[in-house]
User: Fold these one by one.
Assistant:
Number 1:
Amino acid sequence: MNKEITSVQLTKDYFDAIKKNDPEIGAYLTLTEELALKQAQFVDQRIASGEEVDLLAGIPCAIKDNMCVDGVRATAGSKMLDSYISPYDATVISRLKEVGAVILGKTNMDEFAMGSSTENSAYQLTRNPHDAERVSGGSSGGSAAAVAADEAAWSLGSDTGGSIRQPASFCGVVGLKPTYGRVSRHGLIAMASSLDQIGPFAKTVEDCAIILSRISGEDKMDATSAQSADKRYEDFLTGNIKGIKIGIPKEYVQNLEGKIKEEFEKSVEKFKSLGAKIVEISLPHSSYSLATYYMIMPSEVSSNLARFDGIKYGLRINDQENTEFIENGKTERNLLETYMDTREYGFGTEVKRRIMLGTYALSSGYYDAYYLKAQKVRALIRDDFEKAFEEVDFIYSPTAPEVAFKAGEKTDDPLKMYLSDIYTVTANLAGVPAISFPIGFLESDGKKLPLGGQLMGKWFDEEGLLNAAHTFETN
Amino acid sequence: MLTKEEIQHIAGLARISLHEKEIEKYQKDLSGILDYFTELQKLDTESVEAIGHITGMRNVFRQDKSSDFGSIGKEEILKNAPETKGGYVKVKSVL
C-alpha cells in the first residue's frame, strides 16, 4: 500500500466529480454521502493504526438501485418503491461492508431491471459518457456510466439477459456476469429468478476479479447460491493464454457487417497472436434463444412482481389522496381495487407489458405451451453449450450487435429493443459466466463509441474466463 | 390476435387496472410478442426434460425453524408498510 491518498479524500474527490458531472450523465438516483464518509473514516483509522486492510477497503463504489443497503432508499427505478427504505443489507452489501468498501450511492436503472437503455427508469435517463445524445445501455446503465464517467471506482450491477454486459460494452468498461448461483441474490430485488445474477463493473478485468472474490460464495439466505471454495480470482490472472481454444459461433457472426465486423475480426486476430487457437463452432439453437428468453423472463417477472400489492411496503393508491385515480366520483376502494389501481399507477409501461405477457403464459391452459415449452428449449440451448465446451474453453462474440444507440431511437418498438440482447441472453439461459470488455471504437458524428467483446466460459470457470479477458486487455 | 376480453381477463389475473384505450395497445403488443414465440413451437421437445435449476442443483435443506422477523426487527419492517395498526400491517376487509 502506497498511502498516497486517504479514503476520506478519495471519497470526497468522487463526490466532487459526481456533483460536477452527474447533472449531465444522470448515473445516480440516491447519494449516500454520510454513510460513505463514515465508512471511509473507519478505514483510514484502521490503516493509521497499522492494520492490514483488504484491497477494496476505502475504495468508493456505486450500487445498482435494485440492491438493498440498510437505511437507504431502494427504488429499483420504479415509482412503486419511491419511498421504500431498505431495513437490511443485501448479502453482497454486507460482504462489501465487511471488507471496508465505501458506498457512494445508488445508480439509475430501467424499472425493475427491464430494459436495454435506462429509458424505462421512472426517474431519469442515464446518458452515455462518450456521447450524451446516446444511451448508456441497460438495465444497469447507471452503474456502467458511473464507472465510465469516473463517478465511482467500480460498481455493482445485475444481469438477467445482458444487463451488465451490454451497458459495459456501450460505456467502454468491463462488466462480468458470473455463473448462475456464484453470487448470492439475497437483497436483490428479484426480476427473473432462474436468470438473475449480480456482478461487477470496473475499469479493468483485474478489478472485476478482485470484486468477485469479495462478493461471491454460498449464502444460507439464497438457496440457489452455489457452494464454492474461498477463491481469490485475482491470483489466477497469469497473462498467459497460449494453447487455449476459443470457439466463435457461426450463428453469432454470420450477420455481422461493416465496422463492427472489422473491429471484431481485429480482436480475433489479437487472441490468435496471444497464442489462442480459434475454432469455428456451432450453437444450433441460437436462433431460438431470444424467443425462449422473452417467454421465461416475463413469466418469472409476473410471479416475482406479484408481491407489489400496495399493502406490505411500497406505493399504495389511497382512498382520499391521488384523486386522479378516483373515477366516476367513487372515493373508496375495496381491497381488489386497491391492488389494481396501485399496480396500474406504480408500474411503468414495459413492466406492465411483461407482467401481462407472463401472466398470460402462466395462466390456466397455456403453461405447457409457453413456459414449459420454453424451459425445454432452454435445455436444448444448454446442451449446445455443453457440446461446444467439449471442444473449446471459451466462446467469443461481440457483446451487442451495435454500439450505443441514440436516446428515443427504439422506445416505440419493444421487439426492436429486445434485439439488443441477442448475444447476451444465451449466457443467462445456459447459466454460464460471461464477461464484456472493450475491444475497440466506432466513430459516429465525430464521437468515439466503445465496442465490447464477450467471452463466455464453462460453468464456474470464472478464473479461466477472467484470465482470458485480462490477457487480451493487458497486451 | 388476442381479443379485448382476453386482455381484460389477463389484466384481472395480473391485478392491473386497464383503461379502455390501453386495451388495444396491449392487444397489438402482446400478440406481436406471442407471434415471435410461435417459432419455438417448430422444435420437437417431446423427449426433452425441462430445466429446473440450470447448474443442476438439487434440494437445499434447512431447519424448519422460524425466527420472529430475524435480525431486522418488526418495527423496522413495519416502517415501510403504507398502513399499520397495533403492530400489524393493516389490510382492507376482504368480505
Note: The longest strand of chain A covers residues 434-444.
Number 2:
Amino acid sequence: MMTTQTQSPNPAAAESGVASRAVQITLAGLLGLFIVGGVGFSGIPVLHNAAHDYRHSTGFPCH
Amino acid sequence: MAIFRALVFAAALSGLLAGLLMTGLQHAATTPLILKAETYEEAASVPAAQNHGSHDHDSHDHGTVDQAAAAPHDHADAGHDHGDAWVPSDGAERLLYTALANVVGAAGFALLLLAVSEVAGGLAGWRDGLGWGVAAFAAVTLAPSLSLPPELPAMPAADLLARQAWWIGTAVATAAGIALLVYKRSLPLAALAVVLIVLPHLIGAPQPTSHDSAVPASLAHGFVVAVVVTSFVFWAVLGALAGLLRQRFARSTA
C-alpha cells in the first residue's frame, strides 16, 4: 500500500493512500482506547479484581 | 494495513517492556502501601459493624447497612463489593495479574500515544518519543492527580462514575491544551490551551462528603508521591521505547 502510494503519480491513488492512512491510525487509536478502558475503567468485577493494584498504583479511580 | 501493523507491533513490544518495568517499580514502591492500607480497611470495617450492633436492636440488618455505608469503596479482597466474583489470591497470583494489567495497559496507552502522534507526523525516534511520553505523563497522571489524588483502599471517595468521568475529561482537556501549546502559534489558541488545562481544576474533582479516613495522612501522601514518581519513569520509558520502535518498524515496512 505504501509502495503503490509512492510509485504512482496518480492523484486518486495518493488520495486513497491518505484515506487508508487515516483509517489505520483511527483503528489503532480505537483499539488503544478499548484496551485502556478494559484495564483501567471496566466495571466488570473480574477485570476490576485482576487489575485492582494496577488501578490504584496508576491513579485510576478504582472503587 | 502496514501503518496499523507497525503501530500495533511497536505498542505491543514497548508495552511489554515498560509494563514489566512498571510492575517492578510498583512492587517496590506502591504495592506495599496498598497492602498496608488494606490492614486499616479491615481493622476499620470490623469495629464499625460491632459498634453499631451493640447499641441497636435490629443489629443484623443495620450491621450490614452500616458496613456498606462505612466502606462503600471497600477492597474487593474482602468480598463485600463484588459478590462472588473471582479475586486473585494474595502473593504470586496477585502479582501476576498486576503484571498482566500493567503490560496490557501499557500496550493500550502506547497504542493511543502512537496513534495520536502519528497524526502529528509520527514519532521520529526515542527522543521524540520521550517528549511525547512526558507530555502524556502530564495529561494522564499529573493533571488528574492534582485534584483527584491517587487513592489507597479504605480512603473515602465520591461516586466512582463521576470520578472516572472527571478523570477522563481532565486527561483529554490537558492533552488537548498541551497539543495546542506545542503545535499552534496563535495567541488566542495559546489562551484556549491555558483555559483547557486550568478548567478541570476550577470545575473540581468529585469529592467525598468527608475526608476522614482510617488511613494516616502520611501514608496517603507517601502513596501519591510513589504513584506520581513511578508513573513518570513509566511514561518516559514507554514513550522512548515507542518512539524507537515506531522508527524501526516504519523503516522496515516502508
Note: Confidence is low (pLDDT under 50) at residues 1-6 of chain A.
